[in-house]
Amino acid sequence: MAERNSKLKILYLNDILLKKTDEEHSLTMADILSELRKMGIEAERKSIYSDIDHLKDYGLDIDMFQKNKNYHYRVLTRPFELAELKLLVDSVQSARFITEKKSNDLIKKIEGLTSEYEAKELQHQVFVTERVKSMNEKILYNIDAIHKAISSNSKITFQYFNWDVNKNEVLRHDGKLYEQSPWAMTLAEENYYLVCYDKAEPFGIKYFRVDKMKNIKVTGEAREGKEEFRNFDIAEYAKKRFRMYDGNEMDVTLLCQNNFAGVIIDRFGKDVMIHPTDKDHFKVHVRVAVSKQFYAWVMAMGEGVEIVGPDEVVEGVRAMIKDLSKQYKK
Question: I want to staple 223 with a disulfide (CB 3.0 to 4.6 A). Which of 129, 181, 239, 257 is the partner?
Fold first, then answer.
């Protein structure tokens, strides 16, 4: 055991330096020898000096400095900066499609990418509990299966479900399998969507919430839709759809108050053409999939955004407002 531990010494030393040191925290040689003893390894100072040199040659950024007559050792740079790890933690904890349990598991792994001291800073910003999160524990495995199908040019089969009022999963199509040709995945409106080709659809394109998919199988049968997806722009496709609800794609004109310019740019990008109409308003022409979700988005802006064309879209929002007024009529 002693011989085996001796051979592993440099690996344990690497772990100690990464876990116990950073720019603000260092270890003396006595500290290092003490940490190794906790792991059952007795070592001489000379061998540690040699191991440190080997680790530096390997690329570990080990800094040595003198303080109070002792030499101190610390790791200065790592593959990820603390600010980058905080960004990853924020992304994981805010992602609705990742369950609370899996979020906590992933954040714990992210903490392992820095020192134990900086890991505490990451822990201070973790507030996963009470967030609205997916309830599908297998979503990451779903994503992995879909990626494998896309990379191997294969169709997939799966079941798809909704929630009922008792919070139970209810399989759609009486549990019958969906067979689809997967081509891309996208994040939209805080959910992960699979974009597929389905020759039975009018435009060939169909999408599914990944967290509502079950029992995904890669069939090995070649995908369909290669020509349709040759020049497919998933970002442009998602931008036109509100909460990924489909509808007829139409060129729509919006009249907006100037202080809503940021809202328009956030939704449609900086390439959107803004045409001033007077000192307080501007018009934009955007292509969208017209749906109730689009109308709801416009109505949420109140007087700030108004649909002014084409006529059929204006009539559509009027009809929706009329229906809503009946629903809330006392």
Answer: 181
Half-sphere exposure of 21 (CA within 13 A, CB side): 25
Q: What is the pLDDT of residue 304?
A: 95
pTM of the prediction?
Answer: 0.62
* Partners of 289 in beta bridges: 249
Angle of helix 45-58 versus helix 9-20 axis, rounded to 10? 70
Q: Is 245 exposed, middle or buried (0-12, 13-18, 19+ CB in 10 A)?
A: middle
CA pair distance 6, 40, nearest whole angstrom: 10
Taking a C-beta distance cutoff of 8 angstroms, is the pair 277, 303 a contact?
A: no
Q: Which two tokens stand for residue 206?
A: 């169909």
| Cα–Cα distance, 109 to 89 (Å, whole number) | 10
Cβ of 193: how many Cβ atoms within 10 Å? 21
pLDDT above 80: residue 130: no
CB 94 within 8 A of CB 131: yes
Coil/strand/helix, residue 16: helix
281-290 vs 248-257, strand pairing mode: antiparallel
| CB-CB neighbours of 112 under 10 Å | 10
Whether residue 276 has a cis bond before it, omega within 30° of 0: no
User: What is the C-alpha separation between 28 and 51, in angstroms, rounded?
Assistant: 15
Q: How far apart, in whole angstroms, are the C-alpha atoms of residue 230 and residue 220?
A: 21
Token pair belonging to 15: 């772990």
Distance separating alpha carbons of residues 258 and 260, to the nearest angstrom: 5
Q: Which residues contact 10 (CB under 8 A, 6 or more apart)?
A: 51, 54, 55
- CA dist 156 and 182 (Å) reads 7
Looking only at the bridges linking them, the beta strands covering 281-290 and 274-276 are: antiparallel
pLDDT at 297: 92
